[in-house]
Amino acid sequence: MTRDLTITEVRLTPILVADPPLLNTQGVHQPYTPRLIVEIVTADGITGVGETYGDTKYLELARPFATKLIGRQVSDLNGLFTVADEVAVDGARVTGQVDVGGLRGVQTADKLRLSVVSGFEVACLDALGKSLGQPVHALLGGKLRDTVEYSAYLFYRWADHPQGVAAEKDDWGAAVDPAGVVEQARRFTERYGFTSFKLKGGVFPPDEEIAAVRALAEAFPGHPLRLDPNGAWSVETSLKVAEELGDVLEYLEDPTLGTPAMAEVAARLREAARGDSGEGDGERRAGLPLATNMCVTTFAEIKEAFTRDAVQVVLSDHHYWGGLRNTQQLAAICRTFGVGVSMHSNTHLGISLAAMTHVASTVPNLHHACDSHYPWQSEDVLTERLTFENGRVTVSDAPGLGVELDRDKLAVLHRRWFDDDGSLRERDDAAAMRIADPEWATPPVPRW
Amino acid sequence: MTRDLTITEVRLTPILVADPPLLNTQGVHQPYTPRLIVEIVTADGITGVGETYGDTKYLELARPFATKLIGRQVSDLNGLFTVADEVAVDGARVTGQVDVGGLRGVQTADKLRLSVVSGFEVACLDALGKSLGQPVHALLGGKLRDTVEYSAYLFYRWADHPQGVAAEKDDWGAAVDPAGVVEQARRFTERYGFTSFKLKGGVFPPDEEIAAVRALAEAFPGHPLRLDPNGAWSVETSLKVAEELGDVLEYLEDPTLGTPAMAEVAARLREAARGDSGEGDGERRAGLPLATNMCVTTFAEIKEAFTRDAVQVVLSDHHYWGGLRNTQQLAAICRTFGVGVSMHSNTHLGISLAAMTHVASTVPNLHHACDSHYPWQSEDVLTERLTFENGRVTVSDAPGLGVELDRDKLAVLHRRWFDDDGSLRERDDAAAMRIADPEWATPPVPRW
Predict the structure, then answer these.
(1) Which of A304, A333, A397 to mutate to test the interface with B (most CBs of B within 10 A)?
(2) Structural domains in chain A, sorted by start
(3) How many CB atoms sit inside 10 A of residue A205's CB?
(4) What pLDDT sits at residue B276?
(5) Which residues in chain A show pLDDT less than 50?
(6) H or E stretch covering B13
(7) At what angle do helices B350-362 and B109-132 cross, to 10 degrees?
(8) Is B135:B358 a contact under the CB 8 Å cutoff?
(9) Taking CA atoms, what residue in B is nearest to A338?
(10) For A321-372, what is the HEC assignment?
(11) Does the pLDDT of residue B372 top 60, yes or no?
C-alpha cells in the first residue's frame, strides 16, 4: 500500500517538432522548434512526463538539475526551487540578467530556471498522481470545472516555409490579409469549435491588423476577440488601435513593451473611458483591458505592474512561472489585486496542453479562454492527441496527467534533434525570416 | 489500491476548553473558551480531524456546511470555497459586514466563512493524507524544514480567574509587572526552550509595557522580542514606543488600529530611520518593522496595506485565511511584495498546532518564529500532546496530520459545552473582566 516515491531515474530527451511558417513581429517560425521532454521514474517503476522549452540554454540547466533529483521524493515539489537555486550556483554561465530578447518577455537567470523547474514539476506531479491513483488536478486541490475553454490562436502565415522542401508542409495555406485571417478562423471553428479568437499581430502596419480584426468582428459578431502585437507599438499607436477596436476587443495584449509604457496606455485608456459620457456600460467605461505575457512574466515584475494598474489581465504560462503550483499562486495574487487571469501559450505539445488544462481547471478566477498553439502542431509525442470539442479540452480524471508517451514518436523527434547541425536547436524567428529576406533585421521597438 | 475518497459522514463537536486568566486590552480570558472539532469520515472509514473557532456564529455556518460535504471527494479542496459561497446564500443571518469587534480583526461574513472552511480543509487534508499514506506537508508540496520554530507567547495574567473555584487553576501564578513577565519568560524557556518572546500588551499604560520589554531585553540579551498591544495605541503613542524600543524589538505588532493609521506609523518610522545618520545597520535604517494580524486578515485587505507599505510582516492565521493552502497563497503574495510572513495564534488545541506546523514547514519565506498559545492550554483532545523542544515542533511524517483524537477527552470537553448555560459559548473577554470590575467597559480606541 505504501508507495516508494523516491526518484531513481530522470530522462531528458531534447526533440525538434514541426512548426508551420507562422509570422510575428520578430520574423517567422522555423520549420522545427526545440522542446525538452522530461521523464521522472520512481523506485516503484512509475514514470511521470513533463515538457518545457528545449533551446540549449534550457538544456544546460536541465542536465545538472536532473542529476540532483535522484534520491529525492517525487512529492517534494517545494524542494524543486531549492534545487533550482543550487543549480544556479553551480552553473556559472547562467547568473544575473540574460537578455536574449524575443517574445518571451524579460529573460533572467531566475526565469530560465523556473522554465526548467516547470518541466520537472509537471513530471513529478504526473508520477505522483499515478503513484497515488489521483489525477493531477486533485493534487492541485481539485477541478472546479470539467472542461477548459481555449481560444483559436490565429496567425498571419505563409503557405510554405522559406526553406522549401526541407520542411513539413501543412494544408492551411497562407493568411496575410483580412480575408485570409477570417478564412483561418472559420476553419478553426469548424475543426475545433473555438468561439473566441486571438490574432497574433505586430506583423503588418496597424491599419491592416485593425482591418483584420474588424473583418473577424463582422464574420463572428459578438465573439470575444484579442489582438497581440508582442509590444510592437508605441504608446500613441497603442491608443489609436485601442480607440479603433475598443468596441470589439475582449482585451488588447501587449500593445507596447514594458510596464511603464503599458501603465501609460492603461492610464490614458481609463481617462478616455471616464471622459466618455456616451452609452458605454460600466466595464467599457473602465477602459479597454490590457493583457500581458511580456511585461509580467515573473513574480519580481508583479509589484510595479499591479501598483501602477499597468495590466488588467495576466496571461500566465506555467513554463515561465515555474509550474502548475506557482501558476495557482499567480492566480491568487491576481485575484487579490483585482487583476484577471488567463493562460499564454508558446509552441508546445500535448503534455503541456494537459498540464495547462489540469491547472486551469483549478483556478477559480479564470474568466477568459486560454491560448494554445496546439492546433498548429501536427506532431506530438503522445499515443493519443488531446482533442478540442466546442473549443474545450476535457479535464482528465485518470491518474496523473492522463497522457501516455509514445516512445517511437519520441525517438523520431529526438533523432531529428540529434541529426540537426545545430541551426535549429535554438529557436530564432529572425534567422528564418532572413532566408526569405536577406536584409531582414529584428525590427526596432516600437516598430510602429 | 484505489481509495474511495467520498465523504460519508461529518461530525461537529463543539467543546469548551480551559483557558488561564490571560489579560489583553479587551479584558481577560474566560475560564473556558469555545472551539469546534471537525471530523470527516470517508467511504473507506478513514477519519480526518480539524479544529476552528467554536462561538455560535461559527457553529451556525459549520452545520449547513457539513451537510453539503456529504458525497463530495475529500480531495476536492478548491470546491470547499464554492460550498462556502452556497452556505452564505442559504444562511441569511450571515451576510455583509458583521462587526463583532474584538481581537480578530475585521469581522465580515466572508471571514467567518473562511474560518469555518479552515476547520473542514484541515480535516479533509488529514483524511486525504491518511488515505494516500502521505503526511499533510507532502500534500502541500513537501516540507522545507524538519522543525518549526515558535516564540514564547507571554501574557500579563492573574493567578486566578475572577470566577474563583468555578474555573481550572494552573500553577503559573500572576504576572503584572516587569519582574513577573521576566519570570514567566524564564519558565517558558526552561520548559519549552523558546528563544524568542512575544508580550501581549495593551493592558497597562505604555510606559509599564516598555519597562517590561526592557526587562526582557536585559534578561535575554540578543533574543528576538515582540510587543503586541492589539491596536490599543494612537499613532503618536505607537511612534513613542517604537522610538523607545526600536533597538530591541524584532517587530512591533499592531500598535494601532486600521491600515491608514498603521501606514502613517510605518511611513514616519521609515522617515525617522532615513533621517538617522547614526550607527544603525541597513535593516534598522529601513525602520522598525510593523507586523499585523488585525489590519490584514483577509485577502481583501491586502491591496491597500501592501500598496501603502503599511505592514512589513503579516502574521497569518490559517483559520482566518481559510486553511493551509490559502496560507501558502498568502505567503506567496507576501513574498512577491517583499512583505515578511509569520503565524498568529489565538487559543487553540493540538490539531491546529499540528496544522500550523505542517503548513509552516512548507513556506519558504518564514523568517520569524510563529506564535502559539498552545503552552497555555492544559487540556487537549489528542491522545498525545504535541511537544516543543528548543522552542520547536517537529514536523510529522506520519500520514495526515500525525495526531490522534482521544474520544474520551473530547467527550468530557463536549459535555462541558453541552452543560454550559450559554454564558461561555461566546468568547467575551470584557464580560469576564466585569466579574472583577463591574465598571469595566471595552476601552475606547485608541486607549492610549
Answers:
(1) A333
(2) 7-136+406-420 (3.30.390.10), 142-394 (3.20.20.120)
(3) 10
(4) 66
(5) 92-101, 280-284
(6) strand B7-18
(7) 80
(8) yes
(9) B303
(10) HCCHHHHHHHHHHHHHCCCEEEECCCCCCHHHHHHHHHHHHHCCCECCCEEC
(11) yes
Q: What is the pLDDT of residues B350-370, one digit of tens each?
A: 999 999 999 999 999 999 999
List active site positions of B.
200, 344
In DSSP terms, A41 is beta-bridged to: A9, A47
pLDDT at residue B14 tops 60: yes
Burial pattern B66-95, b for ≥16 Cβ within 10 A else e, equals bebbeebbbbbbbbbbebbeebbeebeebe
Residues of A in contact with B144 (CB under 8 A): 78-79, 82
**pLDDT band with cut points at 50, 70 and 90 for residue B89:** low
**Which pairing describes strands B32-42 and B7-18: parallel, antiparallel, or unpaired?**
antiparallel
pLDDT of residue B287: 85
pLDDT at position A345: 87
The residue-averaged pLDDT of B167-178 equals 92
ipTM of the complex: 0.94
Closest residue of chain B to A136, computed from CA coordinates: B75
Nearest CA in chain B to A335: B299
| d(C-alpha A278, C-alpha A214), whole Å | 21
Q: Using a CB-CB distance cutoff of 8 angstroms, which residues of chain A are in contact with residue B69?
A: none
Residue A3 has its nearest CB partner, among B76, B82, B133, at B133
Residue B445 has pLDDT above 70, yes or no: yes
What are the φ and ψ backbone dihedral angles of B215, each rounded to 5 degrees? -65, -40
Q: Please indicate whether residue B235 or residue B107 has the higher confidence score (pLDDT).
A: B235
Over the Cα atoms of chain A, what is R_g?
Answer: 21
